[in-house]
Amino acid sequence: MIKNTTIRTARTAGLTLVMTIVLVGAFAAPTLAAYDDMDAVSLSEKLVGKEYTLGGESISNGFDTSGMNYYVYKMLDYKMPRALDDQFKMDKPLIKSLSNVTEGDVLFFGKGNNPSFSAIYIGNDKIIMASKSKDVVTTYDVDTYRSQFIGARRILSANDQKRIKLVLTARKYLGTPYDFGAKYGQTKTFDCSSFMKWIFDKYDIELPRISRNQAKEGKYVSKSNLDTGDLVFFTTTDSKGEIGHVGMYVGNGMMIHTYGEGGVKYSTIESGWWDEHYVTARRVID
Fold first, then answer.
1. Which parts of the chain register pLDDT below 70?
2. Domain, as residue range, for 151
3. What separation in angstroms does the CA of 97 have from each of 30, 114, 120, 218?
4. pTM here?
5. How far apart are CA 104 and CA 127, in angstroms?
6. Given 105, 139, 155, which residue is the final one in a domain?
7. At 129, which CATH number?
8. Taking the CB of residue 176, how many other CB atoms lie within 10 A of it?
C-alpha cells in the first residue's frame, strides 16, 4: 500500500504515453519496439488506424487481413502461417460458435470452409481487422459479420488468455479513486494492494492483502524479462526502504496501478519516480 502522497515526476515522453493510453485505451509505443511482453488484444488495438495494404504484414507497409494476424502473433512469439487459408486450417482448437469465442481468438468469415477475411476478437463483442473496404485497420461490432462467421482458431495458451483478461478487467477501473487502507471487497475505492488482490482473485489467483506480502508470491522475474500480468513492486516515501507499492505490468514498459490523485491509472516504470523506486517483480502466472 502507499499513502496518499503527491508524487513528483518529470514530464517525460513516458508520461505522455500514459495520457495517450488513458484516452484511447491502447498502448502507445515507438514503431520499432518489441512487443513480446504485451498481450494480443493490446497489441491489436495498437494497429487501429494503420493502413490496409494487400500483401502487407508490417506497421511500415500496412496490413491485409491475414497479415495483421501474422504480425500480432509473431510479435507474441507464436508461429502462424502467412496465408489466410492456412491460418484457418491451423492445428489449433476450432471454435464453431461466436458465443464461445474469447479474447485473442482469430475469427474467420466467408462461406463453408473458405475464409474471405479474418479478425482478432478483443472482447465485448468487438473485433479488430484490416478492412479492405475501409482501407484501414479498424474496430467493428462482431454482429456486423455474424452471418459470415465460419469458425475461430484459439491460438493463445490458457495462461496467455488469463493475462489478457487480467489487463482488460483492470482497465475497467481506470479513474477509480485511491484510498489508503481501502476495505477489500468493495470497488468504489482501492489502494494499490487491494486493487491487485481484487483483480487477481477474479481469476482464481489468491494474493495476500499487503503489497510486501504479495512480493513473496510466485517466482522472481527480472525487470528485463517482465511479461504481461507480472506484479511489480516499489518503495515509497513512507515505506522506509521496504516494499510499499504494487502494480501489474501490462507490457511496453507500463503498469496499471493506483496511487494518489487520479486513482487507478497507467504509469511508466522505465523513467521517473517508479523507475527510481523499482524493487522487484513476481510472476504468479507461469
1. 1-36
2. 40-75+79-155
3. 37, 17, 15, 35
4. 0.84
5. 10
6. 155
7. 3.90.1720.10
8. 18
Given 116, 138, 155, which residue is the final one in a domain? 155
User: Residues 6 or more apart from 124 whose CB is under 8 A from it?
Assistant: none
Q: What are the angstrom distances between the C-alpha of 240 and each of 141, 192, 221, 256, 269? A: 50, 17, 23, 23, 20
Phi, psi of 63 (to 5 degrees): -140, 145
Does residue 241 fall inside a structural domain?
yes
**The pLDDT value given to residue 13:** 32
Residues 243 and 266 in one domain: yes
Instruction: List the one residue out of 230, 212, 213 whose CA is nearest residue 221.
Output: 230
Strands lying side by side in the sheet with 126-131 = 94-95, 149-153, 106-111, 114-123, 126-131, 136-141
Active site residues: 192, 245, 257
Question: What pLDDT sits at residue 218?
Answer: 97
Under 8 Å between Cβ of 81 and 90: yes
Q: Which three cell numbers stand for residue 240?
A: 522506509
pLDDT recorded at residue 36? 65
> Greatest CA span in the chain, whole angstroms?
64
